[in-house]
């Protein structure tokens, strides 16, 4: 069976594809074009994107958008509702503020953050799916799809693979892994899970998956540091600051890569108490949590497909 591999850089990350099938060359190139198209559509920074236009006309005008923009925004709003606002894509102004702080190596100002917090509310995303129109209710509000965009792109790439009769392969969008079928030499794809406490990027375990997405969120790669204090990039939309580090990393396994992407972010922000009730809404969702060195928390529905590699770490199973 013909195998084709390809590396690209898109959506501000390295993308790796590996697929099997007689149409694999044309499929992998079409998948790359789809990702590039989605980046142009959903980018926070590109002036011609739907998202940039929505943000620039916030509080003023409706914006005609593409169907993919409608789909991802509807999905984002739904996940925001299910997470009681722990996931919220209207944090664009906050993300801008923290990018500025990082660039200039400055400490945050709580008063400035409190002012920006008034603009954060997913309920202010108005969507008219019939006319393909979107509007933000208030002036200066901004949508940023960084917490769900790669997951959505992964789903659309799998659709491209299916259009070309690809039955085996995967795509890795900067750590967002989405699989189709299984490798012809094995029963499952094996996905390594990085140890957030490893300085050399080592893994503590792996997952055996088929037709599933595996997404990990953590604050150990993207951060800036002032006087020994680290400010990581995952913000809590409820207070405007980087999420408290109750978890060092969160891995989510789901059939939907959009869902896995968004929920890995939401769960990273949640406390242990919040998480217990939240997971009841998603009985099929698999999670792997790392809070402390030497301890892994794994949902019981992953027991058969998770394998521990670091034998020094203990496992706690949760429902």
From TrEMBL:
Coiled coil (UniProt feature): none
Major enzyme class: transferase
SUPFAM superfamilies: ApbE-like (SSF143631)
Reactions mediated catalytically: L-threonyl-[protein] + FAD = FMN-L-threonyl-[protein] + AMP + H(+)
Cofactor note: Magnesium. Can also use manganese.
Record EC number: 2.7.1.180
Binding site for Mg(2+): 147, 261, 265
Cofactors required: Mg(2+); Mn(2+)
Annotated Gene3D superfamilies: ApbE-like domains
A molecular function (GO) term: transferase activity
Record keywords, A-Z: FAD, Flavoprotein, Magnesium, Metal-binding, Transferase
Family the entry assigns: Belongs to the ApbE family.
Protein's name in the database: FAD:protein FMN transferase
Organism name: Atribacter laminatus
Classification lineage: Bacteria, Pseudomonadati, Atribacterota, Atribacteria, Atribacterales
